[in-house]
Write a structure and sequence with these properties.
Blueprint (H helix, E strand, L loop, with lengths): L51 H4 L13 H6 L6 E4 L1 H7 L7 E4 L3 H6 L6 E3 L29 E4 L5 H13 L5 E4 L2 H7 L4 E2 L2 H7 L7 E5 L3 H6 L1 E2 L3 E2 L6 E2 L2 E2 L4 H6 L7 E5 L7 H12 L3 E4 L3 H6 L7 E2 L11
Parallel strand pairs: 1-5, 2-3, 2-4, 4-5, 6-13, 7-9, 7-12, 12-13
Antiparallel strand pairs: 8-14, 10-11
């Protein structure tokens, strides 16, 4: 359903050595709270912030686990980027406040279907020339409010090396809480998990809905009647999935979309704060649907400028738009 466009393979060298981290290496055994710190940002206390990465020596009195010193501090080329699997992302990162995903595929691919979470479609070419950071390096600042907030980079699984290079470039820009999803979008899709979709993706690929495409409003009937996306079908999540359990095997959803392998489901509710659409997406996973998309912006994102998609209902006029 989604066409793969390879990301430009890039090479980035930070001058790292397996013999010991250079200035700016990460001390992952840091006892202090907060993200791993640069050498230049360690505090004055003689504790675990005595950086074993710089000299390869663990500080046992400061609480360092010296049996893990080489593994944790030196690592593979001593990269400041921490690797996680899609399973680890889903369990420990998805939905975390203040965490931002950096999708390094094309903007259209990112809009069409991406790993769930607050996502920045990076337009990586605006700040990366294929080998180094350009003069537009500040472009990435748009993604987050603080350089200490987690940034999670991913692309296609075949682009893992490129993703690591770009994530390490973010370290040079001053970001210090960096992750890479190994396997990227390919591993996520292989699990059969739902993906996020933007207004642009819905409009480009699925609107208006046609045979085998179902735009499903997961709100209660009263909210649906008040305002909904034109051509959407109403199916209250809690009529077929409640408290983590399918009701009657999810039969009401099957009545709407009977083909698990072909039907495309796009769930939405009022706005990002509404959880019913994400819960419906999880229910569809449990039932075995193969094409599940979550439009988390919902009715408000669809209705408000600069989107202004077609809506139905008198209450649409009561929506307070941000601009």
């Amino acid at each position: 359903m989604f066409q793969k466009v390879p990301l430009l393979v890039v090479v980035f060298v930070l001058g790292l050595s397996t013999a010991g981290c250079p200035q700016g290496g990460v001390n992952t055994n840091d006892n202090d709270a907060g993200p791993p710190q640069r050498d230049s940002e360690v505090d004055a206390d003689v504790d675990a912030d005595v950086n074993p990465c710089g000299d390869g020596v663990c500080d046992e009195t400061g609480g360092e686990d010296c049996t893990n010193c080489e593994r944790d501090c030196l690592g593979i080329a001593c990269s400041p980027v921490r690797d996680i699997t899609v399973q680890q992302y889903r369990e420990d990162h998805m939905g975390q406040v203040g965490e931002t995903n950096i999708d390094l595929r094309t903007e259209a691919e990112c809009q069409n279907a991406r790993i769930p979470g607050e996502t920045f479609c990076s337009n990586v070419g605006d700040w990366w020339d294929g080998a180094a950071i350009t003069d537009n390096g500040g472009y990435l600042d748009w993604a987050v409010s603080s350089v200490h907030n987690p940034l999670v980079f991913y692309g296609y699984g075949t682009d893992d090396a490129s993703v690591l290079a770009v994530a390490e470039a973010a370290w040079v820009l001053g970001f210090d809480n960096l992750y890479r999803i190994v396997g990227g979008i390919e591993d996520w899709r292989a699990e059969g998990w739902f993906q996020d979709i933007s207004y642009e993706g819905v409009m480009r690929l699925y609107y208006p809905p046609t045979v085998d495409i179902f735009l499903i409003d997961t709100n209660e009937a009263a909210y649906y009647d008040g305002c909904h996306i034109q051509d959407a079908t109403n199916l209250d999540t809690y009529d077929f999935y409640y408290d983590g359990e399918l009701i009657d095997g999810g039969q009401l959803l099957l009545d709407v979309a009977p083909d698990l392998s072909v039907d495309v489901l796009i769930f939405y509710c009022v706005n990002k704060a509404c959880v019913a659409s994400e819960e419906a997406s999880v229910a569809a996973e449990l039932m075995g649907y193969q094409h599940i998309l979550h439009y988390k912006g919902g009715t408000e994102d669809w209705h408000c400028p600069s989107n202004s998609g077609p809506t139905v209902g008198a209450a649409c006029g009561d929506i307070t738009c941000p601009f």
